[in-house]
Design a protein that fits this description.
By secondary structure, this protein is mainly alpha-helical. The protein has a single domain, classed as Tetratricopeptide repeat domain (Serine Threonine Protein Phosphatase 5, Tetratricopeptide repeat). The chain is about 80% helix and about 0% strand. The longest helix is centred in the middle third of the chain and has 34 residues. The relative contact order is 0.12.
Length: about 290
Amino acid sequence: MNDIESVFHVMLLAPSRRDLFDFQVERLSQAALLAQHKLALVKDRLMSSDKAEVLWPLFDSFNEMADAVGELAGIHPRGKSPYWLIEAVKAEIESNSNALLATAASLSQAFDVTASNLNTEQWTLWQTAMKSLDNAISDYGLERQELYRDARTHLNDLISLPSIHPSPAMWLLFAWLSWKRRLSLEDVAPLFENAMKASQTARNVVHWFAARHLAHIQAELGCAKEAFETIKSALLAKTDGQTLFEAFRFGLAAGRQADALAFAKRCVAFSPLHALSLLAVMEVEF
């Protein structure tokens, strides 16, 4: 879920490419250490498991890649990893940074389009909500939660106007703020469904964002099959390494091993580093 959250934070804070690169290296280096620890623990069990065919494509050569990430982060001395691997890892991190910036820009544009179609009363409520959201991202603790509450209240007032026809971006932001306010997952799920349905035709970044969030919520609620179908809908809007890995995870949970294997192979081919970072937090029974 942290990767989904990053899109909102990048959109609102607008970090430089260098800052984003350094942030990803730091996050990946911690993930790499955890991933290597897990690999050492599960390797023997994995090779004798009936899931080996599904899981091994994700784990193959990850130790070497984790070492390269550690070298970039200064954990390992220079020269431990081959030059070509260091350059390959750097190129993928830069590519992921650029993709994150592009996704955040697309989401920002969707919000701008929403604002441009509002009358004066509606625009005032929208801008007030967005100002509270901007301030929340820059704050922390209880103050951040209060600002999320204010933003959601203003947005709820906007959506409740008789004159309004909520846009997909509006539904998405309301769902996201409801989730940030820690409403029950049962109450938040229909709000993300609204955003998904409203963006079904466009299949844009709003649809991708809403579908990914909803899939995670469905998984948390124990609805593995629904989560798998929802994450596949997200991939119709936008293909990236993280979403492919989620499709692999939810496919396994839904008992769809053949489909999970296909997504695992696509994930490794598309973005090995995403698979590496998620391996660090993944819990799998072998």
